[in-house]
Each structure stands twice: as C-alpha cells, then as structure tokens.
Design brief:
Elements (H helix, E strand, L loop, with lengths): L6 H4 L4 E2 L1 H7 L2 H13 L5 H17 L4 E6 L7 E6 L1 E5 L2 E4 L3 H5 E2 L19 E5 L5 E4 L2 E10 L8 H21 L8 E7 L1 E7 H5 L2 H6 L24 H16 L4 E6 L5 E6 L2 E2 H21 L2 E4 L15 E7 L12 H20 L1 H6 L22 E2 L2 H12 L34 E3 L4 E3 L9 H23 L4 H15 L12 H9 L8 H4 L6 H9 L5 H54 L5 H29 L5 H29 L10 H5 L3
Parallel strand pairs: 2-9, 17-18
Antiparallel strand pairs: 1-8, 2-3, 4-5, 6-7, 7-9, 8-9, 10-14, 10-16, 11-13, 11-15, 12-13, 16-19, 18-19
Helix pairs in contact: 3-4, 6-14, 9-10, 11-14, 11-15, 19-20, 19-21, 20-21
The chain binds adenosine-5'-diphosphate (ADP) and magnesium ion.
Adenosine-5'-diphosphate (ADP) binds next to strand 10, strand 13 and strand 16.
Length: 695
C-alpha cells in the first residue's frame, strides 16, 4: 500500500525555514537573523558562519551534496551554479564545508547574462549576495540560497534587487501615512502578492513532433480545429485522471518546497489549467512563482507531458495569464485595502484607495511596459484577456461610494447622508463575485487589486516593482501634504475628494472587450499602447525614469539597461519565430504537400486512363499546387525581410512588429489552408485537435 502522505510533515520539508532555524541556531544567532529580516539590520560574520554551518548540516542530512546561489537574472528565468560542499581533508579524505562567506557572497561567472551594457566587458564579473528574507531550500540535491545579483559597480543585474528596494520604499511611505492616523505600532508595511498561474498540458510525444513548440513555445501553424472551447465545458470541469495525477505530484513537489499551492482547476481552453498559491510577501511570492514554473515543467516531464507556459500557445483558443493579486499589509496584521468598520479605518482605506487610483492613472504607461513582451502581445486585447488599455474596476458598491465623495451626494438611499471621509462609516463592501468576465485589467476584489495583464511566463517581479513604486510615490505626495495640514480631518477629506475627482477617467466598470470602450478610453485620454513595440519606449519616458530614480529603485543607467534588454528580447523572440517558420515551411510543409499533390496528380491520371471521373483529385491537386506556390513566395518574402533587419535595436523591434509579424501571418494563412486540404497521413505534424485533446 502507498504510504499515506502527512501534509503537515511534508510541507516545507525541503526548506530551511524559520522553525528549522529556531531549532538549529543558538538563540543569539536566531535573534540576529530575525532582527535582520524585520528591521533590516546587518549580520556579522560569526553569525553568518553559524547559519552557514547549520544550513549545511541540515542540507547534508537531507542528502544534499551541493550548494548554489540561486538568482533571477534578466533572462526571466532563474540561474544557479552548483558547488559541492567537499573540501580535501588530506590523505584521500574529504570533509563537507560551507562558510559564512560562501553563504553571504558568491561570484558566478556572469559575463553571459544580459546586462544591457551595465557591465563593461573588462569587468565582466558580477556578484551574488544572500537575501536572508527568503528561505533557502533543497532542490535536486542542492542547497539553493536565494540571492540578489549585482555588478561590481553596484548596479542591479537581476529582478530581485529592485523588488526588495521597492518593498522598502512603499513600506517607508505607507508608515508615514499610518502615523498620521495615530498608528505608532506598525514597523513595516509589506506588499502581499498572490500570483495565479495558468498553463497548458500536452502530450510529450506530440510536442516532440512540433518544432515550433520546441523552439518558440507556441504553435506557428495550425488550422482551427472542429472543436475548440465553444462548448465551454472545460472551465472548472472534472479533472482527467492523467491531469489529476500530474496536479497531485505538482502539489506535493511544491509543498515540500514550502510553496503554498492552494487551488487547482481546469481553465477555459481545452488542456488549460491553473494553480493559485496562498498569497505571501511579494519577495517570497516572486521566488515561489519562479519555483512553481520550473516545477510545472519538470513534473510534467515525469508524466510524459509538457507544460506550456507561453501566453498564447494556440491561436484561436484562450491564452494564459498570471493574475497578480496585490495588497499592502502591516506587520500588525492589517490589510490596508480592506474597508473597515469604523470611520477612521474607512478613512485610511479611502486614502490608500485614492493613492492607488491616482498612481495607476499617472503611471498607466509604466504599468503597461511591465507586461510588454512579444508573447503577451498575442493575448492582450484578444477575447480572453484585458485590453491593452489600463483602467480600474471598483465594482458597483465601491463605485457608489466614490461617486458620492466626488459629487457630495447621498451614498445610500436609506440613510440620505453625504459621505464625509474620516467621519462616516462606509456601507459594507462585499467582494464582487459577479466580475468573472476578466475584462478589467485592474480589478478591486474586496480587499486587494487583481492585475490581470501579466502574461503566464512573466516573472511577477516587474509588475510588483511598478505597483510598489507607484504606490510609494503617491503616498509620499499625500504624506507631504497631510503632515503640514492644520486640520487633518478636513485636509484628508479634501485630498481624497480632489484625487478621486481628478482621476475619475481611469475608473471603468463596463465591458473592456467592447470596441465602444476603446473609443471612450481614447476620449478620456487613456493610453492605448497596443503592442510591446508601442509600449516599451515608455520604459524610458522621463517621468518614469524620474519615478524610479527618485525612489531609489533603479539608477537611470539601470532603467536604460533594462529597457535595452526588453527591446532586444522582443527582437530575438520574433526573429526566432520567423526562422522556425521558414525552417518548417521549407523542410516540412512544402515537401509534404508537394508529395501529396504529386500523388493526387498521379491518381487523377490513373483514373483518366481508366475512363473514371477524377474531379476530386484534379481540383484538390490544383488548389494545393496554387497554395504551395503562394506559400513558397510568402516564405521567400519572409526570408528577404529577415535579412533586411535594421541594425538599431529600437528600429529592429519596430521592424519585427511592422514587417516580420505581418509576413508571418500571411504565410501562416496559406499553410493553414494547406493543412485543411492535405490528407492527414501526409501532413508533417500533429494538428490542433490532436494537441488540444491529447491528454
Ligand atoms: P480568483 O480566481 O477569483 O481570482 P483565486 O483564489 O484563484 O481567485 O486567486 C486569488 C489569489 O489572490 C490567491 O492567490 C489568493 O491567495 C490571493 N489573495 C487573497 N487575498 C489577498 C491579499 N489580501 N493580497 C494579495 N493576494 C491575495
Ligand atoms: Mg483571478
């Protein structure tokens, strides 16, 4: 019989977490670590040595042989370089060693990670430094130590450093506001994040037969199958045994790594699923989401499956997103986006809400850039994801409150009262469960905001850096003003009212898919940055650079470097897709169709010889031959255009968007028409109905 799983024992069994530290460290060292995490103090080398020794002992007991500084370079995935614990003890023996110095700092040969020119070639090295706020864990016999990654000149080369900076900054500004409300206890305000992760599962054998999936993560060809998601029977549907086995394995793997995997269900498209963890601090959430994505792929492999994290693996069916649920909470356990039951709690809530609304309005373009990737372009604005225009959904109840503050009107018919911030109590605001249509890019869902624009393969670091920083900026402005006020209550009311009035345009409760909304949004002056190529330049808009530099999130050089990396990544992705397409057309599709056409022609001739009618063969062969020539020509155009790629990075990105993608769309049209014509046994790859219903 299979051993019964004891979840509480399994959970976190591969994590050097707080309990393990408490158990294995001297109380002085545990205290020093705790102080370092909660108050940002530094650790001395003797404490680091003791922690390193305890970590090593624990890891070796669990079978680990190596350790690695685990970091998140600008590639969007994680990086690790493994060193074994062994040291020669002489006489042909070894001992297992790990020092505080090795724990705290590492020097990976980092010259091949993208740096956007931040690391001059003469100083190619970067260093990694331990992030004591994220627990170390064991993965495949290696002790993984979460670290930040910087260049020797101190520039951030990763996604964690700016996230930590932004978390500190929003905490600092939020505390200024809390002090104004008489809160003298809160020491730290923490951004809380719960990223919902969507993914597709397909059969590994079929995946192996699709070069496009292997090279680019998405299908570059594929006619619409007879059945897609029309029946809407997959969402929350019963989970098939093979998928259930995968999900169970995934849960257990994630639980052992301390990831709070909570819900799992089928998504809208066939073969599409979702995993959502319980939210945690933004830093841990981001680390855990990276671990989750990695494990989703690894566990799939064990089950003869492949997990696709691309935003749009299949045209015509829903793509995958990563809803980023975000809020702020105090170390005393208060969620600052939760409406309360007293006038003071509500005033605080309305102030944070106003700051958020103003921030999203002021920095729409900045938020948009954080989700701008070549992959997400296929999803945003399509029927399953929010449009590329940012707006905020508040739901009817909260909207009524906002309206009454703006217009000094009654907020409930029953009470006939003007709502005075800081004096009155809000009507109960329930979580809006009617908002299931996913059309709003930023929805208030009772006690948090759900940012729905991020794509499924994205690190959640970028969007959360932006949310934290924007919030820090607006809270700082508010604090500057309110700290000077003579009458806090009336200044507060005025500030909330003024802010909501000035930023109404960003509020929208209607259907985001409606074309009328896009026109309306334009009238309101909202940004509509349709593609990543349109959006990315906003990364270096002066106001956005100013925001980041002012709050110490990035230096100007860091912003520009990141911009460069994103731009180059866009071009790289589209170029790889174009080359893969050319390869498949020339080596697979054209030869296969040619063979099929020749066979049809031969059969037509045979039939003619036998005095039989041969319309089917002749007509099909003609259509196929015409399409074949068209596809060959379109492929030639794509090849030539690819060769003409401009040298400048920004010009190349635009060119990919304006020239290569339309070329590819044309070629795909012809190829998909050929797929429909061609006999199944001749078509050189599995088609959509096989891929989507393979598991
Ligand atoms: P839905 O599908 O309705 O969006 P899910 O349960 O799938 O709901 O996902 C909600 C996510 O939001 C979960 O990861 C949950 O832990 C997270 N969440 C809940 N409350 C908060 C909060 N206060 N701050 C941040 N995230 C939160
Ligand atoms: Mg959601």
């Amino acid at each position: 019989m299979e051993a019964k799983l004891h979840l509480p024992e399994l959970f976190g069994s591969q994590v050097f977490n707080e309990w393990t530290m408490k158990e294995r460290l001297s109380s002085a060292s545990y205290g020093a670590w705790k102080k370092c995490v909660t108050e940002g103090t530094s650790l001395d080398i003797s404490t680091a040595n003791e922690i390193a020794e305890a970590m090593k002992q624990w890891a070796v007991e669990k079978g680990a042989t190596h350790y690695t500084h685990w970091f998140q370079p600008m590639t969007g995935v994680t990086a690790e370089k493994h060193d074994s614990f062994i040291t020669s003890a002489g006489g042909g023996k070894i001992i297992m060693e790990f020092s505080g110095r090795e724990l705290v700092r590492g020097e990976p040969d980092a010259s091949s990670f993208p740096s956007g020119g931040l690391r001059a070639t003469f100083e190619a090295r970067g260093y990694t430094a331990w992030d004591p706020t994220s627990f170390a864990f064991i993965k495949e016999d290696s002790l993984c130590i979460p670290t930040i990654f910087c260049s020797y000149s101190g520039h951030a080369l990763d996604k964690k450093t700016p996230l930590l900076r932004s978390m500190d900054e929003v905490s600092r500004q939020a505390i200024r506001i809390l002090r104004l409300f008489g809160d003298n206890e809160t020491k730290r305000v923490t951004a809380q994040v719960g990223p919902e992760q969507e993914y597709f599962l397909i059969d590994k054998e079929l995946f192996r037969q699709r070069k496009d999936l292997q090279m680019t993560g998405r299908t570059l060809f594929g006619a619409k199958p007879p059945r897609g998601q029309e029946l809407e029977d997959h969402y929350f549907g019963a989970i098939k045994p093979r998928v259930a086995a995968y999900m169970k394995d995934l849960d257990e793997t994630l639980w052992a790594l301390g990831v709070l995997s909570k819900t799992k269900h089928n998504e809208v498209a066939p073969s599409q699923h979702e995993m959502a963890p319980i939210y945690s601090d933004a830093n841990t959430a981001c680390d855990h989401n990276q671990i989750a994505m990695e494990m989703m792929k690894k566990v799939a492999d064990r089950h003869g499956l492949v997990c696709l994290l691309h935003e749009k693996p299949f045209a015509g069916v829903n793509g995958s997103g990563k809803h980023d649920n975000w809020s702020l909470s105090t170390d005393t356990g208060r969620n600052l986006f939760k409406p309360g039951s007293t006038p003071s709690q509500n005033a605080r809530f309305l102030l944070f809400l106003s700051a958020f609304i103003k921030g999203v309005d002021d920095y729409q373009d900045f938020l948009r850039t954080t989700v701008a990737t070549a992959g997400n372009d296929h999803r945003l604005g399509a029927q399953e994801a929010p449009p590329a225009v940012l707006s905020i959904f508040l739901g009817d109840e909260l909207n009524a409150v906002v309206d009454s503050i703006i217009h000094d009107t009654h907020y409930t018919d029953a009470e006939k009262k003007m709502l005075k911030v800081g004096v009155d109590v809000l009507p109960a605001i329930r979580q809006d469960n009617t908002d299931r249509n996913r059309t709003s890019p930023m929805a208030f869902t009772g006690n948090k905001f759900e940012f729905r624009m991020p794509g499924s393969s994205l690190s959640v670091s970028g969007p959360n850096i932006a949310l934290n920083t924007i919030m820090a900026e607006e809270l700082e402005q508010f604090a500057d003003e309110l700290e000077q006020a003579e009458d806090f209550q009336s200044a507060l009311h005025q500030l909330v009212k003024k802010t909501l009035t000035e930023h109404q345009r960003i509020l929208f409760n209607g259907n985001g898919y409606d074309d009328a909304w896009l026109l309306e949004a334009e009238k309101r002056g909202l940004c509509n940055l349709k593609s990543a190529a349109d959006a990315l330049p906003a990364y270096i808009a002066p106001k956005n650079i100013r925001l980041c530099v002012k709050h110490g999130i990035y230096t100007e050089a860091e912003v520009r470097a990141r911009y460069e990396i994103h731009v180059e990544n866009y071009t790289a992705v589209v170029s790889i897709e174009a080359k893969t397409m050319i390869d498949m057309i020339r080596h697979d599709i054209l030869p296969a169709v040619s063979k099929y056409t020749a066979e049809l022609a031969r059969r037509a001739a045979d039939k003619a010889d036998a005095g039989l009618p041969y319309q089917y063969e002749a007509v099909t062969a003609r259509e196929a031959a015409e399409l074949t020539d068209r596809l060959m020509e379109q492929c030639r155009v794509l090849i030539n255009d690819l060769e003409d790629m401009p040298a400048g990075p920004v010009e190349a990105m635009r060119y990919c968007h304006d020239t290569l993608l339309p070329d590819m769309a044309q070629a795909r049209n012809s190829a998909d028409a050929l797929e429909v014509l061609t006999a199944a046994e001749y078509w050189p790859m599995p088609v959509y109905s096989q891929l989507l219903f393979s598991v």
